[in-house]
## 1
Amino acid sequence: MSAYSIIFAGFGGQGVLFSGKIVAYIGMLLGKEVSWLPSYGPEMRGGTANCSVRIDDNPIGSPLVTEPDVLVAMNGPSFDKFIDSVKPGGQVVIDSTMVLRENSRDDVDLYDIQATKLAKEEGLEGMANIIMLGKMLREAPVAALETVEKALRKCIPPVKAHLLEPNMRAIRLGMSL
């Protein structure tokens, strides 16, 4: 793995900060330099939310991600806000259940996943973000599945340990798409 700069973005309550936290833990488990910078409006649930994650072998000078290698957009406003900032050759993963826009860029790889619809169909409601994370991890192979599971164990509190298996199922589902 080399360096990755990733933006996760969506509405508050969609789990974009949690997805970023998982990736940050993955980086820490790999012994990399990591930054995780959340950003959300005062309205929280329903308002806009995003987080910037940087993983690098070298010290990170700033946690800001202004030109992401990867964008994970879970709604239309987030797609609109960040699509033009993705580096040429980067990856963009969108929840096409929520992002109903055309991609005007031909210099990025776009993966449209109907994650919200798929989560509902698969009995994984509320885990569209984790399905999207699985797809992102397939296209930008930050770490092996074993490391992803270890990171999930760190991020899911003991009182919610019963959610580990559904989260892993959602990761695998995303990776299979």
Note: The longest helix spans residues 16-29.
## 2
Amino acid sequence: MILSFSVFKEKIESGEKCQTIRPYNEKRYKMFCNARKYQLYWHNPRNGGKLIKEVEPKRFIPVFQFDPIFKINPLNNEPGHLNYCPIPEVLAENDGFKNFQEMLSWFLMKYRNELYLMKFMVLRW
């Protein structure tokens, strides 16, 4: 599966960034669950993006929503899985941000009023 990035190139290369948070949809979620490798690209490969590296994905893909009061609301309660509740600061740091507030600000800027209505999946490697 291809994942393209436009921020945190150095953190991806060094391994400091070991996940990405993407909008959830059921079809893509299933595709990522079955992926054997993630190909991490700097910019979209269809537009000349360059491969940074290939990585093996973690099998469990958490799903959550941002919550304006509680910050994170876990949604992945599938049979056989632990109820995943990401710790906001760890989630942010693994994604390349300094802290959760910086990450939340970035997501609010990108998704605006829709942010609290959307589901997100955490793709980890």
Note: The chain has a mean pLDDT of 89.
